[in-house]
Amino acid sequence: MSLRFAPLVPTVRAGALLALAAPVALVIGATRPEAWIVAPIAGLVVLALVFVDALLAGRLENFRVTVPSDVEVGAEAALEAGVDLRGGRPSRVDVALACDPRLVAGGRANFALEKRDSSAEAGWHGQSLFRPSRRGTGKVSGTWLRWTGPLGLGARQIAGDLDEDVRVWPNISAVRSPALQILLKNAQFGLLARRIRGEGTQFESLAEYEPGMDRRRIDWKSSARHVHLYAKEYETERNNQIVFAFDCGQSMCEPVDGMPRLDRAVSAALATGYVALKGGDRVALFGFASRPEVSTPFIAASRDFFRLQRAAAGLEYRSEEPNFTLALATLAARLERRSLIVVFSEFADPTSAQLMIESIGRLVARHLVLFVSIADEELEGISAASPDDMETLSMAVSADSLLRQRELVTRQLRQMGVEVIEAPHGAIGTRLIDAYLAIKRSGAIG
C-alpha cells in the first residue's frame, strides 16, 4: 500500500468555532467598535490550537488494511484496519475505504477504530461489515486515514492506494446447513455405494410384507403361491441427468431483498445440485440471455461440486431480453437422453411469456421440465393494499392485473405437463429440493 501524506486539517469542531467567531465579531463591532481586534485574535488562537492539537495527535508508525479475497454473495464479511501511533494522545481514529459498489453500497466504507487497551502506545483496530450484492470481482482501490488530537480541533490525515481484489462467489450456505446434512444422512440414497431398495420404479425383488408397507406393493400372485404375503421392492433410479438452465436476462437481474433474482436462483440450484450429486445423479449448468453463454459438462461426483460453483460464478448479469427459442433449442440438441431440465426465469409481459411457453413446450415431448419462479412479494403487497386513495387504488389494480397474467402463464405451463414452483425467495431452495426428491422417487426422469 502506497501512502500519500496530507497537510494538517481542522475538524468539524474547529470549523464550528471559527463559524461562531463571525457573529461574535459583528456584535463586538456594533457595541464596542474600538475592540474589533478581539475577533481576529480569537480566530488566530483557534487556528493555533488546531495546529498544536494536530501535532499532539502523534505520528503514524504502521497502517494495515485486511481485505478478504473470497466471499459469497449476500454473506456477511469484514474489511479490517489496524493502526499503530506513537508520540501522541489521539482521541479518535477513522478509516475510509473506496470499494466497488457491489461490495459496499455507495462505494465507500467508513468506520472508526477502537483502542485495544488504555495504554498510550496501544494500537487501534476496527472493522466494517458488508454484504456483497452481486457476484464478480470487486476492488478495494483506496484508503483514507485520519487521527484527531486530544482537543478534537486538529487532525492528521493520509491517503493511500490499494489494489485488492475481492472475488464474490455464489452463495452455498444452504449446502453447509445442518438441515441439509441431516437430510442427506437420513436419505435412502447417495451415501452408500450400493443398490438401494424400497423406493423407485425399477423392480428389484420380493420381500415379506410387514406392517407399515404400502399395500399397493403386495404381489398377490406370489403371495397366493406361497400362502404368505409378499411385497415388491424397487430400486431407486440413479445416473439421471439434471440440467439447471438460468435466464440471465433483465428480469432476473432485478433485486429481491437486496440480491438479484439470478443469485437467489443460483443458490437454490447449487443446493439441489449437491443433493443430486450425493444421490448418484449427474448435474450440469446452462446459462443464456440473448444467446447461450455458459454450458458445463455433466458432473457426476460430489467431490467435483466446486466446478459447478465456479461455473455459476461465471453467469453474467445482462440488461437484455432472453432468447428462449435459441437457448432451449441449443440445450435440447445437446442432450442425448431424457433429462430433468430445471428452468429459472421471469416474465415481464405476455409476449415474452408466450415465447417462453412455446420454447418450453418443445422440450416437454422428450424431457421432464421443472419451471422455477420467485414470487413477487412486492407486487402482492401492492395488490393487497387498502385502497385509501385513487393513486393506491390504481396501483393495486395494475398489480392485480400483472399477478393474473403470471397465474395464467403458470396455468398454461401446468397444462403442458410442466411442474411449476413459485415461492418466496427464502423458501425456493427447500421447495426445489423437495420437488427433485419427489420426482426421483417417482422414477419420472428415466
Report on the structure:
With 446 residues, the chain is an alpha+beta fold. The chain folds into three domains: 2-169, Immunoglobulins (Immunoglobulin-like), CATH 2.60.40.10; 173-178 and 237-442, von Willebrand factor, type A domain (Rossmann fold), CATH 3.40.50.410; 203-235, no CATH class. 36% of the residues lie in helices and 30% in strands. It contains twelve helices and 20 strands. It has helices at residues 12-31, 38-56, 173-176, 178-186, 220-226, 261-278, 305-313, 324-334, 350-364, 377-383, 390-415, 428-442; strands spanning 2-5, 9-10, 59-66, 70-72, 77-86, 92-99, 108-115, 124-130, 136-148, 154-169, 197-208, 230-235, 241-247, 255-256, 259-260, 282-288, 292-295, 340-344, 368-374, 419-423. The strands form four sheets. Strands 1, 2, 3, 4, 5, 6, 7, 8, 9 and 10 form a ten-stranded mixed β-sheet that branches. The chain has a six-stranded mixed β-sheet with strand order 17-16-13-18-19-20, sandwiched between helices. The chain is elongated and about 125 Å long. Residues 189-204 have low confidence and may be disordered.
